[in-house]
Amino acid sequence: MFGEPHFIASLQYKTTEEGGRKTFASSGYRPHIKFSFDEYLTSGMQLFIGTEFVLPGESVSATISILSVEYFEGKLYEGLEFDFREGARIIGTGKITEIVNPKLKRNFQK
Question: What pTM does this model have?
Fold first, then answer.
């Protein structure tokens, strides 16, 4: 189940015309998340920072808690982009701004 936040991200919700949601999203919303490096989808609970609701087309920062944390250990990094979806439909994009759970942080080789 969802627990402590795993990372903080900047989120951009698509407008309804771009294929996004028709209604607002509430803090605690749990769409699927897909990172570009893998085909695996996971659920991610978005807790918005500074607001309770986001309208289609708006941007927001949020803490994100994901399921399947073990699968993503050592794979995430600040600046990593992802999309979030309702079923097969991409409703927005995100970019990790801070990794909160150190187990998820990717160690780059120099």
Answer: 0.92
- Residues in the chain, total: 110
Which one is predicted more confidently, 108 or 74?
Answer: 74
Report residue 103 as tokens: 């187990």
7-104 in CATH: which number? 2.40.30.10
Contacts by 23-30, CB closer than 8 A, 24 or more apart = 23/56, 24/53, 24/54, 24/55, 24/56, 25/53, 25/54, 26/52, 26/53, 27/51, 27/52, 27/53, 27/62, 30/2
Which of 8, 22, 6 lies closest to 71, judged by CA?
A: 6
pLDDT (tens digit per residue) in 49-83:
999 999 999 999 999 999 989 999 999 999 999 99
